[in-house]
Write a structure and sequence with these properties.
Porphobilin_deaminase_N, transferase, five-stranded mixed beta sheet, alpha/beta, 11 helices
Length: about 300
């Protein structure tokens, strides 16, 4: 049986799905890509307007309709509530950090006063405004080439993208600065993929489970649990970053933040705990953020 791996048609989506296809082939499972067109591929309106989950729902619908056997998502785009119809596998995470792609090799600090920076993510907008209130932040949509092309053409001085995406398509050298999470905190589960199949497909589940990376799974779950407890969607100005440390790599440190869109206020809280209990750590962090007034900022 050749597994039909559903993916969006963008360069980034087909590249990351192609990596999963190749890994499945390495484990002896034949697989091929199947392109699924989503509303977000034909509607260039901001994600906030066309709806959270627009890039994942079409793939899930194709799974239910048996048009594909496997769906490959960016984990950060999935709804935070588990869907009992699907079995979830999370492979090894790429670099979770955000990156600046600026003209003339500039860093964020070196950009001139009033520079035009492109991003549509409220999480990035709020943190950029806190770091550089003088910047003119402009909306940004399109694939990686389109976004970076706005810098090349001179329309923008810089754009901010996920470093994982740049790395997956071999363009990591285009980054003029990669932000430490302490400076620009990434989105929950940024850099992680989510692979789904139908829960009744036991043979496919056996194959996909070979791709599971336990450390990536628990850190991504911790970050996404914060988002869930705050009742915020993937486009909310919420960030989270978890790491595993300690002698055996079993101690988790989770930091999460909620930001005012104008950059005027930031709520950030960290907690540590056992890595095998990511939800408990996330509950603690989310509770502290709520106590500090996160609901007001999420408004």
């Amino acid at each position: 049986m050749t597994l039909r791996i559903g993916t969006r048609g963008s360069k980034l989506a087909t590249t990351q799905a192609g990596h999963m296809r190749d890994r499945l082939k390495h484990f002896g499972r034949d697989a091929e890509l199947t392109i699924v067109t989503t509303p977000g591929d034909v509607n260039m309106s901001p994600v906030e307007r066309i709806g959270v989950g627009v890039f994942t729902q079409a793939l899930r619908d194709a799974l239910v309709a048996d048009e594909i056997d496997v769906a490959v998502h960016s984990f950060k785009d999935l709804p935070t509530a588990p869907d009992p119809r699907f079995h979830l596998v999370v492979p090894t995470r790429a670099d979770a950090r955000d990156a600046l792609i600026a003209r003339d090799g500039l860093t964020l600090e070196e950009l001139p006063k009033g520079a035009k920076v492109g991003t549509s993510a409220p999480r990035r907008i709020s943190q950029l405004k806190a770091l550089r209130p003088d910047l003119e932040i402009l909306p940004l949509r399109g694939n990686i080439d389109t976004r970076m092309g706005k810098v090349t053409s001179g329309e923008l001085d810089a754009v901010v993208l996920a470093f994982a995406g740049l790395s997956r398509v071999g363009m990591q050298d285009r980054a003029t600065q990669v932000f430490d999470p302490d400076m620009l905190m990434p989105a929950p589960a940024q850099g992680a993929l989510a692979i789904e199949c139908r829960v009744e497909d036991e043979d496919i589940i056996t194959g996909l489970n070979m791709l599971m990376h336990a450390d990536t799974y628990v850190t991504a779950v911790a970050e996404r649990t914060v988002l869930n407890r705050l009742e915020a969607g993937c486009t909310a100005p919420v960030a989270a970053h978890a790491t595993l440390d300690g002698y055996a790599g079993d101690t988790m440190t989770l930091t999460a933040g909620v930001f005012a869109l104008d950059g005027s206020e930031q709520l950030v809280f960290s907690a540590q705990g056992a890595g095998e209990r990511p939800e408990e750590i996330a509950e603690q962090v989310a509770a502290q953020l709520i106590e500090q007034g996160a609901a007001t900022l999420l408004g």
